Amino acid sequence: MIERHAPAPPGSRPPRGGPSGPRGTPAPLPVRPATARFLVLAGVFVCAACGLVYELELVAVASYLTGDSVTQASIVLSVMVFAMGIGSLVAKRLRRLGAAGFGAVETALALAGGSSAMALYAAFAWTGDRGGLWADAPRALLVVFSLTIGLLIGAEVPLLMELIQRVRRQDVGGAVADLFAADYVGALIGGLAFPFLLLPFLGQLTAALVTGTVNAVVGAALVLGLFRRDLTGRARRLLLTAGVLVIALLTTTAVLADDFERAARRALYGQDVRVAVRTGTQEIVLRGDADGRPLDLFLDGRLRVAGGDERRYHEALVHPAMAGPHARVLILGGGDGLAAREVLRFPGVRRVEIVEVDAGLSRLARHDPGLSALNGHAYDDPRVRVTTDDAFRRLRGVPAGAYDVVVSDLPDPGLTAGAKLYSQEFYGLARRVLAPGGRLVVHAGPYAARPRVFHTVESTLRAAGLRTASYRVSGSPGGDWGFLLAGARTPPALRLAPRGPRPATLTPGSLARAGRATADPRGGERPPPSTLVHPRY
């Protein structure tokens, strides 16, 4: 049976480089043009969703590994947008290949995007502690993946335009509108699916691998199913083989993702990891507390509690603030219960509220045998109440003068996600909830490593109307902690409560020396304060 072909419209041209029908007309599609057009736009939709998931995955993994979300997002977005432009220019040379070019691009994109999260995590786990050039390996790899994925995403658009026009010739404006409508809607779905479905249910590594598998399947199905007659036999075999290999690699890796994560965790934290859980907020790892080893607590890969030093830290944080009225105490952060342990040692404490954003950490501090023993079973004390909330939001809802002591046991101010908790607005709210004669104590990060950050916190407290006294306590070899004690009316005296419990690691003399250790070498000149609209950390 001989198929008949309608004459080509004026100005049209057959695709170059692929088989064609009689007199050079395009090879017929296996479905009606309307159905083919719908399938192409559906492919655009899925590929756009996958592309945005890759982009968000790179930002999320890099932010998790380094903590600086603004810098990582800027690197990923700027490099990817630049690469997309280059990719579009390069793809102009592939337009004559049409379907074959699109199939090759989608296969490569699925492999690069699907493996990106695992490769970044591996680089961080196995090279991040080597120093020298190895220390920059994760960031270099982030740039490489951003560039590669951006190039491939940019190459999609010209090739998809060729496929849409291959199905049915239409004016360029209409074809562009159809293409970008499907692309933007797909990006919306991918952007929403990542934080609300993929990340909580699959995790970072498996989410990227599953997305890459979907990308490879859809790309191969579109090309080999709808445009197979535009390909030579050799091109079909090559695309099919490459697609099967990539899909098999990604699915096998997804199955082994848990084993990989355990191996990387051992490389990162050592062999004695006892608890590793991911809550909706962060990854929590407990190490040690067995065979005499001290317990260490890691939050999102950063050491938060070092068993050998934690008492020195928490006594320095809490005891100077309690040298005054202390019946009502508010602890911001401190979900591990260790600051609460020190507070509860003081006679006269009637109420302690812990505001912790991660309910998973509070549950672990209450029920884990090692951590609950370390915090003295503080959560079992009837005076303790836990509020799962953001510290900023909680302060806005607290009545004025509600607390005698506010303990700010929050992550370091250098982490972008917590910068608002070291802002002038935040400290203004903290000042409002202090009762007359009340005290606020702030952990302001390591003094020796980042003195400017420390003094920025001090400037911010003063801009909020608080008077400050600073002190610095040494920790493990090479480390220290900087603290700021603040009062609303007069500079608070840096002293220990005369009738309070005797700390094991602090004396009045060592506390006085700790205050002298934070003298500003610039003769009193302070950096400007940090605000919500102008963060300076």
UniProtKB/TrEMBL annotation:
| UniProt binding sites for spermidine | 314, 336
Q: Which SUPFAM superfamilies does the UniProt entry name for this protein?
A: MFS general substrate transporter, S-adenosyl-L-methionine-dependent methyltransferases
What's the EC number here? 2.5.1.16
UniProt biased composition (Pro residues): 7-17
The segment annotated Disordered runs over 1-27, 494-537
Keywords of this entry: Cell membrane, Membrane, Polyamine biosynthesis, Spermidine biosynthesis, Transferase, Transmembrane, Transmembrane helix
According to the UniProt record, what class of enzyme is this?
A: transferase
* Gene Ontology molecular function terms on file: spermidine synthase activity; thermospermine synthase activity
Residues spanning the membrane: 38-65, 71-91, 103-128, 140-164, 176-199, 205-226, 238-257
Q: Which domain of life is it from?
A: Bacteria
List residues of the PABS domain. Answer: 252-488
Question: Which positions are annotated as binding S-methyl-5'-thioadenosine?
Answer: 282, 356, 390-391
Q: Would the keyword Transmembrane turn up in this protein's UniProt record? A: yes
The pathway it acts in is: Amine and polyamine biosynthesis; spermidine biosynthesis; spermidine from putrescine: step 1/1
- Give a yes or no for keyword Cell membrane in this entry: yes
Fetch the InterPro entries from UniProt. Answer: MFS_trans_sf (IPR036259), PABS (IPR030374), PABS_CS (IPR030373), SAM-dependent_MTases_sf (IPR029063), Spermi_synthase (IPR001045)
Membrane topology designation: Multi-pass membrane protein
Assembly and oligomerization: Homodimer or homotetramer.
PANTHER family (UniProt xref): THERMOSPERMINE SYNTHASE ACAULIS5
Q: So what family is this one in?
A: Belongs to the spermidine/spermine synthase family.
Query: What is this protein's name?
Result: Polyamine aminopropyltransferase
